[in-house]
Amino acid sequence: MENSRRRFLKIAGISALGIGAKPVFNALAASGGQGETPEPKTMKGKDVLTSKRWGIVIDTRKFESEGDLEPMIEACHKIHNVPKFENKRHEIKWIWLEEFKHAFPTQEHAFLHERVKHLPFLTLCNHCEKPACVRACPTKATFKREDGIVLMDFHRCIGCRFCMAACPYGSRSFNFRDPRPFIKERNNKFPTRMKGVVEKCNFCAERLAVGQMPACVEASNGAMVAGDLDDPNSKVRELLRSNYTIRRKPALGAGPSVFYIV
Ligand code: SF4
Ligand code: SF4
């Protein structure tokens, strides 16, 4: 694929997030238009954008207390204008904490390590290989990009919540109320949402587009690593090779792209 077409597709993909094409185009131009790093990257005879499959490895051994997990949630929710509602039923979450027994229900047993039993796990959209949410959406408001990232086009969402019912991980939230008055500190570079719209983690697609890592990864002090699952030389593949990892509800066959070292 020609460079210009690849760049156009990248801009189009980000624009679907509700961010204007012009600022994204400017940012891409400034960064050299690359995804994972600002440096040009090529693979023999393959297009980088289409061959990449983004994934995250979370090394849970590096977290000692619940407090260690808060910075990632804070970083994500702050830059993405995620509102904070007191009423739990209205909660909007892109990345959140879950006990082991809820995050990995089929892998729980009586002899779990104390740390695993008591320390919550960071959970987020798994950017599944076979995303049930995408299949369920009648308007194509949610879609999977060629690089594996599952995105939302907020403008196309009609609030039917079929995607929420289809997602087996509870990764999606619905705006039962206008979220704007409940955003602590608005980030004007990212769109806010409105009542009646579904939202979730976007793998920081807007940051990847300008050569930055996801905000949670950046805030994790090395405990989270994002990279190309298709590249045998990537850091994520190296971590998967050298550690035992688990994924959420693997038997469902969704193919989560988030891995946990336990
Ligand atoms: S975790 Fe849920 S919302 Fe995310 S891609 Fe998979 S099915 Fe879709
Ligand atoms: S990848 Fe980005 S959007 Fe997803 S949980 Fe991490 S910080 Fe939030």
Task: Explain this structure.
It is a single chain. By secondary structure, the protein is of the alpha+beta class. The chain is 28% helix and 13% strand. It contains eleven helices and ten strands. The strands form four sheets. A four-stranded mixed β-sheet has the order 8-1-10-9. 36% of the residues are buried. Mean pLDDT is 85; it is low at 1-12 and 18-51. The structure holds iron/sulfur cluster (2 copies). Residues 125-128, 131-133, 150, 167, 169, 171-172, 200, 254 line the site of one iron/sulfur cluster.
Brief synopsis:
The protein is built from eleven helices and ten strands.
Please give a handful of descriptors for the protein shown.
262 residues; alpha+beta; four-stranded mixed β-sheet; two-stranded antiparallel sheet; 11 helices; 10 strands; 28% helix; disordered N terminus; binds iron/sulfur cluster
Counted by DSSP, the helix tally is: 11
Cα distance spanning the termini: 40 Å
Taken as a percent bin, the fraction of beta residues is: 5-15%
Uncertain segments are 1-12, 18-51
Rg, alpha carbons: 18 Å
Q: Which H/E pattern describes the elements?
A: HHHEHEHHEHEEHEEHHEHEE
Backbone shape: globular
Biggest β-sheet: strands ordered side by side in the sheet = 8-1-10-9
Look at the structure and give the mean pLDDT: 85
Query: Which ligands accompany this protein?
Result: iron/sulfur cluster
Largest sheet composition: 4 strands, mixed
Q: Level of helix content?
A: 25-40%
Structural class: alpha+beta
Number of strands: 10
